[in-house]
Design brief:
Strand content of chain B: 15-25%
CATH architecture of chain B: 3-Layer(aba) Sandwich
Oligomer: heterodimer
Radius of gyration of chain A: 20 Å
Number of helices of chain B: 5
Helix content of chain A: 40-55%
Order of helices and strands of chain A: HHHHHEHEHEHHEEHEEHEEE
Distance between the termini of chain A: 56 Å
CATH class of chain B: Alpha Beta
CATH superfamily of chain B: Response regulator
Shape of chain B: globular
Helix content of chain B: 25-40%
Structural class of chain A: alpha/beta
Number of strands of chain A: 10
CATH topology of chain B: Rossmann fold
Distance between the termini of chain B: 10 Å
Number of strands of chain B: 5
Radius of gyration of chain B: 13 Å
Shape of chain A: globular
Strand content of chain A: 15-25%
Largest interface: A-B, 32 and 31 residues
Number of helices of chain A: 11
Structural class of chain B: alpha/beta
Chain lengths: ~280, ~130
């Protein structure tokens, strides 16, 4: 395979402008090395002779663009990340959702919008399992539909496998839950089929239209918007607002907020947990 | 290349790091080989055909970049993909490695999710 020529300042400027305008990834002026170190592999694979060539290919191909976004961002997640968020889900949202199901709603749909390797979606599946079991209503678990999406096809592949190493399984997961929901297999842990079957995953780019996803009762959009420019964040949250049912909510990462952004959302809180719902128009 | 037959060589002078990476790679059910420096890494490559090398930079005897260049000189080894996983985070070093043909460059501390997602992509497991 032919070598890709080193990134020039002009090419960096073009790729930087493209990343901020199309996907909202806002690189600093001294982060040229990030473009070269993370995108050379892709440039080689698609036969680009230099980064100007890669820029032309990215502009013409959305699939390629989503791979660029994947390579420029970081995959990191843990089980039950942020206590206050999960306390809100357990004590505020789930009792309401269970009541909705008992009052005739067919299903509750939840979206983990940047699911990485699946921990957030599966944490929710475990929590639902615990709550419906505690209430003596295990049949309700199957009426929660959990969807996880991520821009990284590698992360989605790993989420679908639902197999985690000892270190990863220990990040945020109690021994009790580990023993209850996982089966050890050599040095890894396999998530039990019952919980695994309650979430499905697909590769998805948050830059695309959300129309194909349907409506959701709850959206987790945590620690993903941090990479994006103000304009892209506003566009992202406007699209999320459109995917919500009228009573729908959004959860952000513990250190994130919509403060200073023009969005249709108002915030609300439960204990230390903050969540967002669409305000009255 | 069936997934059961995947062979990955981890070259790092830290026993702890090699153990952590070995454990992380257990998720994709591959066979993991270990070496503690570049020279031992090349010996391991001479004995077993590998699908991927995960390579530290700073090691005694022969460092990671030297091992990588030695691989590039051998027809049998030159096409084996290499992911560098190192504490070396100088911009010039990263660029040197990538411009020389290293497929991905990850700096320590790293997340298992990031390492595995890159491994899956390099080995194209997500396309099978």
């Amino acid at each position: 395979m032919a070598k890709v020529l080193p990134l020039t300042p002009h090419e960096f400027s073009k790729i930087r402008d493209l990343l901020v305008s199309v996907c909202g990834i806002d690189l600093k002026s001294d982060q040229d090395y990030l473009v070269e170190t993370r995108l050379t592999e892709l440039a080689t694979e698609v036969g680009a002779s230099d980064f100007g060539d890669l820029h032309r290919l990215i502009v013409a191909d959305n699939v390629l663009l989503s791979r660029v976004v994947d390579l420029m961002t970081t995959n990191e997640t843990l089980w039950f990340r942020d206590d206050s968020c999960w306390l809100t889900v357990k004590e505020k949202f789930l009792p309401e959702m269970i009541a909705q199901l008992e009052n005739g709603q067919q299903k509750i749909r939840v979206w983990s919008a940047a699911c990485s390797t699946g921990q957030e979606a599966y944490s929710l599946a475990m929590l639902i399992d615990e709550e419906v079991t505690r209430l003596g209503k295990p049949q309700l678990a199957g009426r929660f539909e959990i969807m996880g999406t991520d821009i990284s096809s590698g992360a989605v592949y790993l989420a679908q496998k639902a197999r985690y190493d000892g270190f990863t399984v220990g990040r945020g997961l109690s021994h009790q839950r580990r023993d209850q929901y996982f089966t050890p297999d050599q040095s890894s842990y396999l998530l039990n089929d019952d919980i695994k079957s309650r979430a499905r995953f697909q590769q998805f780019n948050l830059m695309e239209s959300f129309a194909s996803l349907g409506k959701f009762d709850l959206v987790f959009c945590r620690n993903v918007a941090i990479y994006f420019s103000k304009e892209f964040k506003e566009e992202l949250f406007a699209k999320i607002a459109d995917t919500l049912v009228p009573t729908g909510r959004v959860l952000l990462g513990a250190t994130e907020s919509l403060f200073g952004l023009k969005t249709p959302f108002v915030n609300d809180s439960y204990g230390n947990g903050v969540y967002y719902r669409v305000g009255v128009k | 290349m069936s997934q059961e037959q995947l062979k990955i060589l981890v070259v790092d002078d830290s026993d702890v790091l090699r153990r952590i990476v070995r454990e992380a790679l257990g998720v994709i059910e591959c066979e993991v080989f270990e070496a503690s420096d570049g020279k031992k890494g090349l010996l391991a490559l001479a004995e077993h055909p590998m699908d991927l090398v995960i390579l530290d930079w700073h090691m005694p005897e022969m460092d990671g970049l030297e091992m990588f260049f030695a691989m590039k000189e051998q027809e049998k080894l030159m096409s084996i993909p290499v992911i560098m996983l190192t504490a070396e985070d100088h911009k010039e070093s990263m660029l040197t490695a990538i411009r020389s043909g290293v497929r991905h460059y990850l700096t320590k501390p790293f997340t298992h999710e990031d390492l595995l997602a890159r491994v899956v992509q390099v080995l194209r497991l997500d396309q099978k």
